[in-house]
Amino acid sequence: MNQDQLIALLAQSPGYVSGQEMSQTLGVTRGAIWKELSQLREQGWPISSSTRLGYRLDGPPPQLSAPYLEGRLSGTISSGHIHVFDRLDSTNTQLKAMAAQGAPHGTVVAALEQTSGRGTRGRTFASPPGGLYLSLLLRPQVQLSELFSLTGWVAVAVRQAVETACGAPARIKWLNDIYLNNRKLCGILTELSLLGESSEPDYVVIGVGINLSQTAQTFHDLGLEGIATSLALEGYEVEPNHMALTLLQELHTMAQHFPSHHEEYLHQYRSHCLTLHQPVEVETSKETYQAMAQAILPDFSLEVTDQQGFTHPVSSGRVTPHFLRANS
To answer: For the whole model, what pTM was predicted?
Structure first.
C-alpha cells in the first residue's frame, strides 16, 4: 500500500470508510492505515474520524493531487491516468509526448505553473503560479471534418465548468477565449495529430489554462494589467482541486456528447458569446480589417460583414470586439 491508494479510496467514498474496510481493500493492517492517515493529517489533509464509522475526507487536499482526482473520477475515462506536477514547461507538450508513446484516451496532465506555455497561432501563453493548467488527451473515433468544430465545443465546456465551480458568469470571446468582466480569464489550445499516410485522426490534446488566484501585481509585472484577470480578483474563490475536478467532469461530458449533441453545444456557444452583434477588428495572416460580427455558423465559424458590405465567414485568426480593444 502507498498513500496514493489510501487517498483514492477516501476520495471516492461519499462518507466514512471503516478501518476494517480500508485494511481489507488495501491488504494491510489497521495499524498501517492509522500511520498513513496520521501522516496525511500532518500534511494538512482534512481527514475526520469516528470511533463507530471510520474515516472521512472532509474536503479537498492542501495541494493539487492526482490520487484525490483519481478517486473522485473513479470509473471515468481519466481514472488511472492523471498526472500532476507543480511546474512544467507546457502541459500540452508533455501530454503530446505521452500520446506519441501510446498514452490512452482520457489521460490528463495538470500543473500549477508553466514555464513555456503555448497559445494559438504560435503565441506564448503567460502561465504564472496561481493558475490551473490542464491538458486532456482524447482519441475520438470520428471523421477529421467533424473535429474542426471541436474547439467551439471545448469553449462551451470550459465556460460551464467555471460557472459551475464558483458561479462566475464567464463568457466566450470567439473563438476560444473565456472572459470575465471584459478581462481574459482562460485560454484554450486544441492540438490535433493525424495517423501517418492515412491522414485520419490519431489524437487530440485539449489544453486549458484558467487564472485562479493571481493578483493584480502579477498581471502588472507580466504587462497584462487591464487585459487578464483571475477568479480571485473578480471575487470568486475556487480551490484548484475543485476547479480541476469540475473542468474534467465537463470535458468528459463533452467527449461523450461529441459530435451527436451538436445543436445543444452550438446553442450554448451562441448564448454566451460576447463577440456576437459587435463591431470587431479581424486580424488574419494576410490582413486586418473592421467588420460587424453577425452570427455563429453551424461549424462555429464567425460570420461578419466588412465595411464594403460583403458578408463572409471567418474560421481562423484573431477577432477583437471594439469594446475590448482598449484592454489589448
So the answer is: 0.95
